[in-house]
Write a sequence for this structure.
């Protein structure tokens, strides 16, 4: 963690990170970093670097041609993030879906929106249909994409509940 605010803010930032790790049941991960307080700044900032490992599948194993896709969470920006927190994909759900064998792949959605993220991720140019705004930015990380076996649609939908939005290429 890099804190560009002040030494005084460090504990609040650290407590926030520890709260997230606790929600994910990953309390044993150490939080380390520095406070860049050796210069005065007119703006605040916090940087987080998270390092992890995951087995990488070969591309041909990931995409088999019988996938379904979904948006988990709702793309939100600015005040919407504060006012519509119940629509944000929770971290526990992200972790649970990442661990499911039925979920073949997961991808983030950034400032260019769902459609752009999906096209870059799948390398396809299909027209897309979904109940959420496909062009809207999804930051900071309020939604993500998943690819899963078509036969597991009901199971994934049940797990994700109100956060599940089917994404239909066509």
């Amino acid at each position: 963690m890099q804190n560009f605010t002040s030494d005084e803010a460090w504990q609040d930032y650290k407590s926030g990170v520890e709260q997230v790790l606790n929600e994910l049941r990953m309390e044993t991960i150490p939080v380390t970093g520095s406070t860049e307080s050796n210069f005065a700044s007119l703006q605040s900032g916090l940087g987080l670097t998270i390092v992890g490992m995951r087995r990488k599948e070969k591309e041909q194993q990931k995409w088999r041609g019988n996938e379904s896709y979904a948006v988990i969470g709702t793309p939100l920006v600015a005040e919407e993030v504060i006012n519509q927190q119940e629509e944000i994909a929770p971290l526990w759900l992200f972790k649970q879906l990442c661990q499911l064998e039925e979920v073949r792949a997961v991808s983030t959605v950034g400032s260019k929106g769902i459609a752009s993220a999906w096209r870059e991720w799948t390398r396809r140019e299909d027209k897309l249909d979904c109940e959420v705004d496909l062009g809207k930015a999804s930051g900071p990380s309020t939604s993500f994409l998943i690819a899963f076996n078509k036969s597991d649609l009901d199971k994934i939908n049940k797990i994700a509940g109100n956060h599940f939005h089917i994404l239909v290429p066509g």
About this structure: The chain has a mean pLDDT of 87. Helices lie at 10-23, 59-62, 79-83, 91-99, 114-122, 153-160.
